[in-house]
Amino acid sequence: MLQVLQIVRDNPTGSQFLMSSSTIPNLNAFRRGQRGRGRGSGRGVGSSHSGAAGLGHGRHRPHDEIIQNTDNDAATSRLSAVEAGYLEDPFARLLSADEDGPVARRLPLMNRGTYLRTASIDRIVDTFLSSTGHGCRQIISLGAGSDTRYFRLKHKRQNLAIVYHEVDFEANTRRKIGRLRSPPFADKAKTLAGVDMHASDVRLSEDGSTLRSSEYNIHPQDLRRLPRDNADLTGVDKDLPTLIISECCLVYLPPEDADAVLRYFSQLFPSTTPLAIVVYEPIRPHDSFGRTMVRNLMSRGIQLQTLEKYAGLAEQQERLKTYGFRGDDGTGSGAEAVDINFIWQRWTPPEEKERVDGLEWMDELEEFVLLAKHYCICWGWRGYGEGSGWKELPSSSPN
Amino acid sequence: MINVCCRAIAQLRACRPIPEPQVRELCYKAREILIEEGNVVSVHAPVTICGDIHGQFHDLMELFRVGGDVPDTNYLFMGDFVDRGFYSLESFLLLLCLKVRYPDRITLIRGNHESRQITTVYGFYDECIRKYGSANVWRYCCEVFDYLALGALVLGATTDVPPAASDNENTQSTLPPEDEEVESEVLNANGDILSKTLRRRFAGLSMMSHHTNSSRISPAPDVDVPSPPDHPASSLPLQSSPSSQSLFTPPTSTTGAVLCVHGGLSPLIETVDKIRLIDRKQEVPHEGAMCDLLWSDPDEIEGWGLSPRGAGFLFGADIVRHFNHNNDLSLVARAHQLVMEGYKEMFDKTIVTVWSAPNYCYRCGNVAAILELGEDGSNGGCIARANGDQGRREPVGTDGSEGGSGVLWNLASPGRRYRVFEAAPQGTRGMPAKKPVGEYFL
Ligand SMILES: [Mn+2]
């Protein structure tokens, strides 16, 4: 396993075949595992398809598989936080892996962390929506997995004019689309969010991995190939005010590929289009907690590939500045980065803090602070005029 | 019983659970012993004080390796034996077996996790169900929890750092000259000195502090650093008060008692005797004195504050200073809070946190520590009365922040040796094959 990962790391450009035959049984073992866990129809077609297309980048597969499965973990955490009362999300259960069984309960500190991650991105989304007039807006969610944000948004405001794009590995999009079209979810989406998953404008690809509609789109797309193939994401409107969300996504890519994704989107949109981005991911790999985190995740086969390069808040902020959110034109653009502990301290209103504090006994305070200091929210914006809400989000950099 | 106990100890040392009927018998026997103990157990120095264990069995074995075995070493564990780690059951039952076998060589006091409510959230309940298929063993253990003492009072500690174990003769050469007195030192798991602090001389001018630092384990950030020579001295009544000088010449090695509790102080408890009045044989209540002792934390505030944990209180330096003064204590030792360096002295060394679970939850990357207090031999073995007035005194509250008005002449703090250790090596840890998920945000 580690040997395979090493190859992935040492050969990020994918220009050579370094795979030795001894590693191939590994890959097959992982494929079998995937088939066993997969859901939805058209699976047989899909796997033969990915088998053919995957030959060129087959060496990514073990790590890909593990990264794809991080979404299950995130969905379970989300469901735990919902069940414990931290988050309101009527869609979480139906999109998680254990939709029928008992909820795997997470510890209070994990629930709080999941809550803060979701609440802070929600606030960025709200800032984006309130800073861009009344016309149609666009959100592109990278590595969206089983995320429920589109449906939560429509649940809150059914009249919201929005085009929503989700991008993820094919294995994940197919599984999600299967769940979205299942009767329990489709009913809920219709009654609570006014979204009809079976409307005439909703079109699926033959293998069930792509979903198109006038408003909601799911793209099976390996992000590493997006800039390289220069393939357009069908339906992305370059003139709509746009927010890009990377929630634990770019960090799993090789640094060159993660940078290429940012460059791609930065260049895709003209400078006149209001564009914003929010990135949530781990930071600070160099202290003892961080070193342990890297080691523990590595033992589960999870590589945080950009963590070394974007190790701290300053590097995260600098990255966004480098890729188009420069902050050299007054309030029109900028980039900020804070850790999740800061989010708890400064973004959470007192009454909300009190509510969350009261949900569960929290005996893991020091541990929570440690953990929360190792995750960050960074956001950038550009093409905005005076009076946008971006400067109102509390940040640690002096205004 | 002793035979049964020895067998059980052997089996538990191998990290193998003992059969349910044995657990039941053990818990019954333990309760008989614990019921005889007061709410505040008196413990005579020398003693080794330990903080949270949290089911990290292999690290508990490492602790015994570093600190010495029972009954050779006299131990005081300040609670939180269970929850979070994978081996709460084996850890707690081993400690309980040792208690039954050597009741005078090991003291166990209650932590906030020794509670029915908390163990159902944080893992011990689930572990018992997993290992026995029913909640019986959990129930037996919870009944024992109700009988654990709430605190301990260490008497007869010396102001000297306790003599090092004989196999560390090499440390002799690093001892300071006669006129310098070591107040505390930090040793790594091999017994090498990482740092030490010299006692401040209040009668004279010399205030020095030495650090030797030669390891990957860094000393706690709050270990005394040399103060500017003119700063604290100016707030002391030394020149104007000749009587105060006599307190130090000749120095005695007598110190006050050390109160050990899991969490901290309570606004409802002004004296140690008040703790003795609590009816402790119950589940940990959500509020009140018993709850506070197990849940509270020291914090950089004045007076009392609300605890963000939802139970207990925060208390400031002034509270500790006055509590120690009024109760002839020289130190409060407590656990309850994860500290990355394993121990943390606060408030002019009037309170210390000891944390004994290295790499807590297999995730936090911290080191652990135990605290050794030596025996005062100067009284021919007699224990100084806790309220005795002939003890050596030192001013506390001399940080200058209050212009000296808050200075109390409290009994001198005991000499303290911290042994710092890391998590047991991977090979011996025996992590379960299926690791629990959800330790990180993915
Ligand atoms: Mn505790």
TrEMBL record, chain A:
InterPro entries, per the entry: LCMT1, Ppm1/Ppm2/Tcmp, SAM-dependent_MTases_sf
Keywords: Methyltransferase, S-adenosyl-L-methionine, Transferase
Segments for region (Disordered): 26-65
GO MF, one annotated term: protein C-terminal leucine carboxyl O-methyltransferase activity
Residues annotated as binding S-adenosyl-L-methionine: 117, 143, 222-223, 247
Biological processes annotated in GO: methylation
Catalytic activities: [phosphatase 2A protein]-C-terminal L-leucine + S-adenosyl-L-methionine = [phosphatase 2A protein]-C-terminal L-leucine methyl ester + S-adenosyl-L-homocysteine
Superkingdom of origin organism: Eukaryota
Protein EC: 2.1.1.233
Free-text function comment from the UniProt entry: Methylates the carboxyl group of the C-terminal leucine residue of protein phosphatase 2A catalytic subunits to form alpha-leucine ester residues.
Protein family: Belongs to the methyltransferase superfamily. LCMT family.
Descriptive protein name: Leucine carboxyl methyltransferase 1
Lineage, highest ranks first: Eukaryota, Fungi, Dikarya, Ascomycota, Pezizomycotina
TrEMBL record, chain B:
A Pfam family reported for this protein in Swiss-Prot or TrEMBL: Metallophos
Gene Ontology BP term (one): positive regulation of double-strand break repair via nonhomologous end joining
PROSITE patterns: SER_THR_PHOSPHATASE
Residue ranges constituting the Serine/threonine specific protein phosphatases domain according to the UniProt record: 109-114
Active site annotation, chain numbering: 113
Region (Disordered): 163-183, 211-251, 386-405
Enzyme Commission number, as recorded: 3.1.3.16
Assigned protein family: Belongs to the PPP phosphatase family.
Full protein name: Serine/threonine-protein phosphatase
